[in-house]
Amino acid sequence: MTPTVRLKFLSIYMREARKEAGVDMKDAAKLLGRDTTRVTKMEKGREGLTPGDAKMLLDHYDVHSDEQKAAIVELARTRSQRGRWSGHRAAVPLQQRAYYDFEWDANRIQHYGAEMVPGLLQTEAYMRAMLARAIRVESDEVDDVITTRLERQEVLFRQRPATANFVLSESCLRRMVGGNAVMHEQLKHLATIARRPNVQLQVLPFDAPGNASTFGFTMLRIPAPTASAQPLEMVYVENLHDADYLDGIAEVSDYAALWSRLTANASGLDKSRRLILEIAQTYE
Predict the structure, then answer these.
(1) What residues does the HTH cro/C1-type domain cover (predicted)?
(2) Which of 72, 79, 170, 234 is such that its CA lies 20 to 30 A from the CA of 267?
């Protein structure tokens, strides 16, 4: 489990324990000797907590389970391990690193692509064409970024791969990136990877019934660090300058409903693969 995910689970468990105990955030801040802003950041997974402070708060919250306490304190102890983003990975923009960590620890990935082929399915040539137009990637960093992105795709091929479901708007298949040769290779790659047992790939054609989403998003399910706890369900959405990680029950439910509509309106697996291959021929 990556440090980012440890920190996220730590924040969730501490927030839930405080609420179940009926402790006000101001009281928690007073116990820690901090202001409420720092506690808010901690409970949102943006700031850590020492093992000693975690144990002190859990005692104050009257958490009686020794197993639960030990698991949370262990998360506090290991949430700040370093080294993952050194070497070639240092070229990955800071705003993308947290998502890569969440994705790596996920056992289920559901992605809707509105305009571009998602990163997990991109060929190296497609990546290079995309990065050639990127506004925040220096030319001498391109090789390092690509190496990291290709490593990221191992989540689909490792010994216990994530289950990955994709719905791609037909725009993803027709939006020209890098020229005909790049697009032909990319679509042939999509048709190949769609045959993997852990991958489901549907295309939402232009003439599909219902309304398509105008923005892409990713839903992740990440196993909990203990068997007795619930997995983390979250939604990732991004724009040009920022990204949101949504884990509220109402937010996740809304996106799950949107996902259900998209999969219902998209073509089936076999028909989608045939459409991908048909469009691939137009780039020959």
Answers:
(1) 14-68
(2) 234
